[in-house]
Amino acid sequence: MAEFVLFTNPMSRGQIARWALHEARAEYETQLVDWEDKPDALLAVNPMGKVPTLVHNHNGHQHVVTECAAICHYLAAMHAPELAPRAEEMADYFRYFFFAAGPLEQAIVANSMGWTVPFDKQMTAGFGTYERTIDTLETLMSDRDYVCGDRFTMADVYVGSHITWGMDFGSIPKRGAFEEYAARLRKRSAYNKARAIDMKLIAEAQADD
Question: What structural domains does the chain harbor?
Fold first, then answer.
């Protein structure tokens, strides 16, 4: 039995978890999830039926982790301490992680859905406005190579996925700071190995349609 089991669909945020697993050099097996026929094994560990869902078989126990940000940090904390933050990196690491998981994710979804937050409700919304959130992200990324400065950490898997995917699909504008950051990430061996797996799975699924 593999130490980790990843429930995923290649056309999902599961790509983030796969990249994280490769960065952590973790032994894992993949359980592919069909959108229309979700396996009982997934529903047993995650009643929402969401992917990715990660199962960690550890010391005779089965630990279930959901939500991409949590999966990324869990892998760093439990399996790849070199990708976890050092003491002096903690503030940036968690600030950027939670900024991407909260305001950035909300802003992108709202903008994609065509939802506009009324001016008098911007303080209620966790992101204020899409424009302000993207401008803030640009400011945060403009003075560094990685989230924690000059060292790659697991936070870069999560933040970087938002930026690379966002530019690919048009949900985040192409700006110099984003493109330079994405270029650094796309050179990583783990990124390319994980992506190749999912791209092959997508091509096989499309060929079968």
Answer: 4-82 (3.40.30.10), 85-189 (1.20.1050.10)
Answer whether residue 115 shows pLDDT above 70. yes
Instruction: Give all strands of the β-sheet with 4-8 in edge-to-edge order.
Output: 28-32, 4-8, 53-58, 61-66
> What pLDDT does 144 receive?
97
The pLDDT of 140-167, averaged and rounded, is: 97
- C-alpha angle 101-102-107 in degrees, rounded to nearest 5: 110
Helices vs. strands in the chain: H and E counts, helices first? 9, 4
Res. 178: pLDDT tops 80: yes
> Phi and psi dihedrals of 207, rounded to 5?
-70, -30
- Asked if 151 and 161 count as a contact pair (C-beta separation under 8 A), the reply is no
**Helices 176-185 + 130-141 axis angle, to 10:** 60
User: Model pTM?
Assistant: 0.96
